[in-house]
Amino acid sequence: MRDHVYDIYRNKKLTSKFVIIGGLGFICNYTVLKLTIRGWHLNRVLAEVVAALVALQITFILHDRWTYRIDKSIHEYHLSPGKRYRSYLLSNSFGSLMTVIAFAIFSIFIGHFLALALAAVVGLVWNFVINKSIIWHHKPHEPA
């Protein structure tokens, strides 16, 4: 697993895509967070749970179709699409849970935006490592 953490530095194209999709997920999360707090009058923690669930769906689709997309004539994933989705929801829900807990703590002391930004870093490393090493792990290339 340690090698996959170093991939954040070594594989700049993958890391860039991951960060872009993560950024879009963050914007989605923050937008839904604010809408549910203001529009539905949910408390900040419940609103973040709703926001995280919405962001999970969007980021899975974008990661599967862009970040980790592979040339199927060269490689295959270890997991089928259904297993990737279920694994993503499970592992990234844990990452989101870490984000929600960190947000709940940080938002006591600082504003919602900065609290969410700092909390997102907590889940970022977890998600990158699990996504790369398990969910979108490629089968080794076997020459024809």
Summary of the model, kept short:
The chain has helices spanning 2-10, 12-38, 44-67, 81-109, 112-135.
Commentary on this structure:
The structure is a single chain. By secondary structure, the protein is mainly α. The chain has one domain. Helices cover 78% and strands 0% of the residues. It has five helices and no strands. It is elongated. The model has no long low-confidence stretch (mean pLDDT 83).
SSE topology sketch:
Blueprint: H1 2-10, H2 12-38, H3 44-67, H4 81-109, H5 112-135
Helix pairs in contact: 2-3, 2-5, 3-4, 4-5
Contiguous runs where pLDDT drops below 50 for at least 5 residues: none
Structural class: mainly alpha
How many discrete domains?
Answer: 1
How would you characterize the largest beta sheet?
none
Following the backbone from N to C, one meets helices and strands in this order, namely: HHHHH
Mean pLDDT: 83
Tell me, briefly, the overall form.
Answer: elongated
